[in-house]
Structures are given as C-alpha cells and as structure tokens.
Predict the 3D structure of the following.
Amino acid sequence: MAILDDIRRFWDDDAATYDNAPGHHPTSAAVQGAWTAALESLLPRPPSTVLDCGAGTGFLSLMAARLGHRVTALDLSSQMLAKLRAAAGAEDLDIATVVAPAHEPPTAPADAAGFDAVIERHLLWTLPDPVAALRAWRALAAPGARLVAIESMWGDADLLEALRGRAWNVVKRFRGTAPDHHGPYPVAVRGALPLGTGTHPRAVAALVAEAGWTTPRLIRLHDVEWTSKLEQRLPERLLGVVPRFAVVAT
Ligand SMILES: C[S@@+](CC[C@H](N)C(=O)[O-])C[C@H]1O[C@@H](n2cnc3c(N)ncnc32)[C@H](O)[C@@H]1O
C-alpha cells in the first residue's frame, strides 16, 4: 500500500523528537503515575502476553513491561522502534520488537495460547483500514483475551473539541511552544484515513464492535486528565485537556 510508505516516512522522521512533547511522553511523576495506574487496571493480572500495536517509542510497552508483562511491540516505523529498544535497554526491560503494519501482526510467543491483551494508544486514527487491523489482532488473541484501545477525543469529530483544539493552537503559537511533531501530517494521507481528521469514542466503540470484539466498554481516563491539568499554567489550564478514554473489549 503506497499510503503506508508515506506514513512510515512521516514517523521515521518524527522519531527523533516525538518524545519531546509532554502529551506523548510525560515527564511529570504524577502524570506517569496516573498512566501506570490506568494501564494496570486495564490489563489482565501480570504476567500476561501483551501485543502493543503502533508502539512507537514505547510509552505503553515500557509501562506494561515494568508492570511485569511479556510485551511484543509492533510498529511500521523502524526508527520509532529503535527509540523503544534504547529506552528498554536503559531500564533492562526485555521487549520484543517487530517492524510490521498493524493489519499483519506477529503470532504470540510459542509457549503462549495467543496474546492475552492487545493494546494500542493513538494508532487507530492513522490506519487506512482500522477494522482490518482490529480483526487481525482478534485472530491472534488467546481465548478470553482483551483489547485495550486508548484514544483521545480530538479534531472535527466534535464541535466543542474542535474549538478547544483551535484555541490551544493559538495559545501555543503565542507562547512559541514547539509543535508536537516535526511537520504536518500529509493532507492527502489524512483525508484517506477513516479517523484521520478526528476521533470520537462513539466511532472507536463502533469500529471495535464491527471487527468482532464483544461487549466494548468505555472508560474515561479521569486521573490522567486530572494530573495533566495540574501541570498546566494559565491560560492553558482554563482551556483544559483533551478527553482521554479507553475502549476495552473481549
Ligand atoms: C501517535 S504515534 C503513537 C505511538 C505510541 N503508541 C504512543 O502512545 O506514544 C503512532 C504510531 O503508530 C505507528 N503507525 C502508524 N501507522 C501504522 C501502521 N499502519 N501499522 C503499524 N504502526 C503504525 C507510527 O509509526 C507511530 O509510531
């Protein structure tokens, strides 16, 4: 798929600076703690076999490995995974990495019946066919396994969030804050992605159900939002933070 080459190139180029954005890689101990508590409550009891799709520089993979899970990290971008491997090495964490598109995931380790959990954060929006990927993950899941899709609500999926996003961009420009990415996502690529211009919990839950995962549950990540908000100065604090949620299914 030619579109995947464009997407891979973008993330290979973004790898060097991706972790500089606090939204991607929080340095605050409180925000990290809230994320750890959230992930711990969403995953099965450790040790379980976890596939992290679109793992990037390893935000979820590293956290899951620290919690005692056996993690396989998949990503289209070898440069993003190189960052993950360096971070895992620095903490002496054993994480398997696989360069592959999300709809072609690897099988679970030979001694496992399948993955006990498939997790992702902020991947679905950039998939040309999210349902195909969600179906492929389900095919590799162990009986009773769970999906944990962690997303945020942004873009044109909701008018108020779109307005908040615009206000945020104005404040960032005013402050001279570095952008979250090295450049803009290719417009033509974005337009070809079902969630490319915005993500809504309704849409994520519907895609998960369409792919055959059962009883999707929606969980708002209040503590991650709360701790992130405590880190903000004025006027950013008045604008609040992007709503974060997880869709969990079996
Ligand atoms: C927004 S980043 C999220 C990274 C990480 N999950 C996190 O929470 O920080 C999106 C990641 O998805 C990867 N990605 C994009 N399209 C993909 C695809 N079709 N298959 C696998 N990975 C993909 C990118 O290389 C990038 O690392």
In short: The two ends are 30 Å apart (CA to CA). The longest helix spans residues 159-175. Residues 4, 7, 11, 24, 54-56, 59-60, 75-77, 80, 101-102, 121-123, 126-127 surround S-adenosylmethionine (CB under 6 Å). The CA atoms of residues 168 and 239 lie 7 Å apart.
